[in-house]
Amino acid sequence: MDYLLTEEQIMIRDLVRKIAKDKIIPKRLEWDETGEFPWEALKALAEADLCGLYIPEEYGGMGANILGYSIAGEEVSRACGGVGVSYMASGLGSTPIILFGSEEQKKKYLPAIAAGKKLAAFGLTEANAGSDAAGIETTAKKEGDYYILNGTKQWITNGGEAETYTVIAISDKSKGPRGASAFILEKGTPGFTFGKKENKMGIRCSATRELVFQDCKIHKSQLLGKEGMGFIVAMKTLDMTRPGIGAQAVGIAQGALDEALKYSRQRVQFGRPIGSFQAIQHMLADMATLIEAARALVYSTARMIDAGCKDFTLPASEAKLFASDVAMKVTTDAVQILGGYGYMKEYPVEKMMRDAKITQIYEGTNQIQRNQIALALIKESASKK
Amino acid sequence: MDIIVCIKQVPDTTEVKINPETNTLVREGVPSIVNPFDENAVESALQLKEKYGGKVTVITMGPPQAAEALRTTIAMGADEVYLVSDRAFAGSDTWATSYTLSQAIKKIGRFDLILCGKQAIDGDTAQVGPGIAEWLDIPQVTFAVKIDAEESKLKVERLLEEVNEVVECPLPAVVTVVKQINSPRLPSLKGMMRAKKAEIKNLSAQDIGADLENTGLKGSPTSVVKIFTPPPKGGGEILAGEAAEIIVKLTDKLKERKII
Amino acid sequence: MSIKVLLDKCTGCTLCVKACPFGAIKMEELPAEAGLPAGQAGKRPKKKAVIDLDACTLCKACIPSCKFDAIEITIEKTEAKDLSKYRGVWVFAEQREGKVQSVAYELLTEGKKLARDLKTELSAVLCGDEKIEDEVESLFHYGAEKVYLATHPELKHYRTAPYARTVAEIITKYKPEIFLLGATTLGRDLAARLAIRVGAGLTADCTGLAIDPEKKILMQTRPAFGGNIMATIQTPNHRPQMATVRPKVFKKIKNEKPIDKTKIIRFSPVIGVEDLIVKLLDIVQDDTVKVNLAEAEIIVSGGRGLGEAGNFKLIEELAQVLGGAVGASRAVVDAGWISAHHQVGQTGKTVAPKLYIACGIAGKIQHLVGMQGSDTIIAINKDPDAPIFKVATYGIVGDLFEFVPLLTNKIKELRS
Can A36 be counted among the known catalytic residues? Predict the structure, then answer.
């Protein structure tokens, strides 16, 4: 199918497919089993100039190309959801700097990330603040020219492996939602340590750790944007990266469909390939249609952002919501099509089903997405009166 | 170290199939690729350049579509490419090909090392590399599995049938490489974009001062008389008889198929 | 030198399009021909074959495919040099570590037939230090009537330049019409350089040799396109006609009787410092260059039928005498009888060697998917209904404990 991609986007897609085939697919089951962080794959992506697709050119990137970046994320996730999330979480961690960083901050942190030399991570979630992000308790107390950070962030993707962290903390409790600020921190800063690596259901090669701040002292030049802008930074960042999550989900679903299709042609029962039975055909047809619909939502949102559209919160939410639900359904159906073999760890689809689940949870659970979508619809309807 | 790499665009012979009805080669849908051994040669050149500095130039003798193969090497990191192309070169055997390439190399001028893949996967001769060395009157080292450079000489490990040989060879020289020497790098996105815009310099027979007695079909001492497909695999024969008989039948069949 | 389709003879049957290995022939609609009879002006012109001269390599595969003689190649007549001065079939007696290699004996045996067809003499060319003379006797026993012996201390170990100089000078002086070498690393390194130096046509890696009865020249048959097609090649106007020949393709036959008529022609090459600039530093036994399953040309695989881990020995022995690699089905890898590096199949490696021997393997689809691309497949299994027999070129319904050792011994016998 022709997605009307530019030549550069086609190059990106084909290059990632090649890397996926050579570097990711052969090792994905091993990485899933051991939980080993996929440095090899990320290094290959870095060497192919694929880590800076969304970073402006003046900082060593390829320019704002959210669609190209989404396609890259989709193709990586098609091979392995864990590598996909590690790749794209770096985008999540560096987007605050792109959107709100000062010139010095951008020059200091972005080039290494664009070159793939360093990874980034984003720290918002805490044990008591998931969907209710406003309930975060990590504090950043101002002392002269410094801020002292105290608190713990939970379930941070790339935690411990990334060098660059953007973290949201409360700088003034009295101001409520306007009392949070965003900061940039590097691994190795005294008082900044990591918790143990979480043992997850899926995306197991992705590193998920706590970020622990104990009297962590950082200079005021590490403040991102202005004091009090913390949640604005967080919300704008998450809006921007939400299509990327959709892309990951589309990729995981596509990978599962590919396996199911291949299997249905090879597996012979009752004297014929099971792909010749209508029951299987209908499942495959539904899976494919859902994936195309999800892809269409993700691509059109990405195109909107690339075209400079300012308000894309609604389509981004819809894309993430729909694509993640599709990923869960398609991967489950893929396991069903592979039957007994689908349940065995030797075949890749059970991993894909486990990988898909998280897409319905992180970056705003699908329940929160539904809230947001409904609110946006009502607001729009009200304003038309 | 200025290196010239000779490559060839070939059909991906691992994808080529025989049409069972007509018993002929099915050419459609078979992608054209850079000869895999030549990719190893380009990779070796890039690694040597990264270590010692210099320039990597890639040349190929072929029809106009061979320019695509050259672009792939630019995406890997080659600095300059030349397409040696002319109707006069059509039908060349290895004599004419090695002559033509050596003339092109003379035209390009300065080089320290010429790298080639061991053989092309369509012709499978492994003759062009040494042929170029003879035309240029420089030493050759074939079947290289490791290349180290020391000032103006090379230390090369050669992959022979049972042992490896280590030789020292002064520059300039021609070295042909085997696939075990390295893993060719994937093109980078920036490389691919550079490749799209890159200028492919063309060298005609006149540009390289080629003596037409030595080019193309006319300049080729060998010529193809016949092309045919080997007898089809033939399915499933169950060998019958006494054990010893069966074994004899089997080994005879293997001998027929030139496997033993 | 050109090729074209004679449009008045072409019927548009498209057989040539299919025959072309390079996709250089296309069917094109031509503008209506002048002089069409009245009433046919409205008819659509037929599509005819057109050859793209940029893609055409003049391989001539299309010519026999045209039943209407509509493809014409015009060859400019080259002046034939006086080739009658070149007589004799020569074989390069490759030696390593002072011992003549088997391929030389194979070529002498085959060369004898060629010499007989040409009513000429068979000779061998042997280079080495003075001790190499000990090997001359064996060359006569394999059919050489004459041996050109070049001795020099610098010829003890092969290097390109001193060997190329020596052999080129012998060829120039004594003028053979045919010169055969083994397609070994040594033979291919030497032949490629030598051919240019002496102005010979060289064909690589031949698997078939014969003399054309009319033209009295060598017809060289060899695989091309990765082995997908065979090509027969000739060198009509250049001498000698050189070819490297694939080892183990031809049999060697020794004449055990004592030889009385022998002739040795000694040659003393002058080897200067300029021939010695490439120096041999070391010989290395490389243990890391093991037989890689994915690249192996011959694979012998074992499955559940082996019964226990220890019996893999049988598979290893057969693989060894064939010079191949050892493969395994998933079942035995899981049972821990052999490491996973050897696993062939859907969740193991996909292989496509020249020869795949499956011993005690049932041939479930998961295994077949990994090896059915092999050129020749042999299956040995007790169960006549085992699915492996559906893809096997040759099947043996029997006990692998009986047949595998028998096969191993037979191969050993044939090789010695």
Answer: no
- The answer to whether C369 contacts A266, with C-beta atoms less than 8 Å apart, is yes
> Given this structure, which CATH class describes domain C293-415?
alpha beta
Q: What angle do CA A233, A234, A235 make, to 5 degrees?
A: 95
User: How many Å apart are CA C288 and CA C291, to the nearest integer?
Assistant: 9
In chain B, which among 176-205 make CB contacts under 8 A with chain A?
185-193, 196
Kindly state the tokens that stand for A14: 């084909």
Per CB distance under 8 Å, which residues of A are interface residues toward C? 266-268, 346-347
- The pTM of this model reads 0.79
Closest partner CB to C200 (pick from B155, B221, B250): B221
> Using an 8 Å Cβ cutoff, are B218 and B210 in contact?
no
Query: Subunits that touch chain B (at least 3 Cβ pairs < 8 angstroms)?
Result: A, C
DSSP E strands, B52-139? 56-61, 80-84, 113-117
Fold adopted by A235-383: Butyryl-CoA Dehydrogenase, subunit A; domain 3 (1.20.140)
> Residue A250 and residue A243: Cα distance in Å, rounded?
10
Tell me the pLDDT tens digit for each residue of C163-212: 999 999 999 999 999 999 999 999 999 999 999 999 999 999 898 999 99
Among A227, A292, A363, A380, which one carries the catalytic annotation?
A363
Cβ contacts below 8 Å, chain A against chain B, sum to 29
C365 CB within 8 Å of a chain A CB: yes
pLDDT tens digits for range A58-76: 999 988 689 999 999 999 9
Residue with tokens 């304003």: A383
Most confident of A103-107, B149-153, C226-230, C364-368: A103-107
Contacts of A347 in chain C (CB under 8 A): 347
Query: CB of C382 within 8 A of CB of C362?
Result: no
The CATH class given to the C83-276 domain equals alpha beta
**Homologous superfamily of A7-119:** Acyl-CoA dehydrogenase/oxidase, N-terminal domain (1.10.540.10)
The CA distances from residue C158 to B165, C94, C190, in Å, are: 11, 9, 9
ipTM at complex level? 0.89
Contact indicator for B239, C394 with CB cutoff of 8 Å: yes
Residue A248 CB contacts under 8 Å (≥ 6 apart), including other chains: A73, A74, A77, A81, A84, A85, A88, A359
